[in-house]
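Below is how a single chain appears once it has passed through the pipeline. First comes the sequence as given, then the structure the pipeline wrote out for it. We keep one example in the README because the format questions we get most often are answered faster by looking than by reading.
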Amino acid sequence: MNINFLLKCACILLPATLLFNSCGKQVDAKKFPPDPKERVKKNLEEGKGFRLSTKLKDLRKGSGGDFEFASSNSLWRATLDVIDFMPLATANYNGGIIVTDWYSDDINSKESLKFTIRFLTNEIRSDAIDLKIFYKVCINQNSCSVNENTGQLVNELKKEILKQAAIYEKTKKDKDFKPYKVINPKD
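Resulting structure:
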């Protein structure tokens, strides 16, 4: 009887411990107000929560919900805007990669460039994208050499993409900001 009870307890407590162990996230207490009402207000203003009244209104209107498209990702949009002069060979949002076709201007048709951009995260930060630029120099139609450029152009393009993405993100946050109003149930 005693062993069965211990086994049952172990079978319940072990999975529960594993499940609840990963629920928490390390946070800095200085960044979050101690008052629960202030935390709720801050989270809702930052778009981290939902308002039940808004969801009920959407249900009454027959709204289908929110969908995430590539146009809502600031980093993706900024990248496409910065390299809009390049012909695209592949652009896969789900795979997180953009590959351009070879591009050359009319001035020097023997030199071409190609970009490969991989998105490592959706966050706007310096290591969010992996940008590779390839140069192709052709002496004639059959004799071409391709080299990767790791110089200043890579850094300038990354900087421009991140700057544009930050602008998009700021305008998105400003547009989506909804001040939190406390509704008194007595009213």
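The chain has a mean pLDDT of 79.

See the next section for the split statistics.
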